[in-house]
Amino acid sequence: MYTKHDLSQFDQGRIVYVRPVKTEDLPEDVRAQMTGLDEVYAVHNSDGERLALVKDRAMAFVLARQNDLAPVTVH
């Protein structure tokens, strides 16, 4: 349990971050495509660039994994 491990072997470029976004905070043209949704989930790369918006958290994780990325949740 308290054993040190070398994690440098993992490619940091493959990590993406999933976070909830209120649709009211999105640009008008994007909001128009999301009628009936108060919140969506954004997938961001390590530079903060938004890669995708999806309707729920589970879909965000599936999308990331289908593209060989490692999703983590951001609070």
Secondary-structure blueprint:
Layout (H helix, E strand, L loop, with lengths): L14 E8 L5 H4 L7 E6 L5 E5 L2 H10 L3 E4 L2
Parallel strand pairs: 1-4
Antiparallel strand pairs: 1-2, 2-3
Strand order of the largest sheet: 3-2-1-4
Shape: elongated
Mean pLDDT: 86
Number of discrete helical segments? 2
Percentage of helical residues?
10-25%
Distance between the termini: 26 Å
* Proportion of residues in β-strands: 25-35%
If you had to describe this structure to a student in words, what would you say it looks like?
Helices cover 19% and strands 31% of the residues. It has two helices and four strands, in the order βαββαβ. A four-stranded mixed beta sheet has the order 3-2-1-4, covered by helices on one side. The two termini are 26 Å apart. The model has no long low-confidence stretch (mean pLDDT 86).
Summarize the structure.
By secondary structure, the chain is of the alpha+beta class.
Keywords for this entry:
alpha+beta, 2 helices, elongated
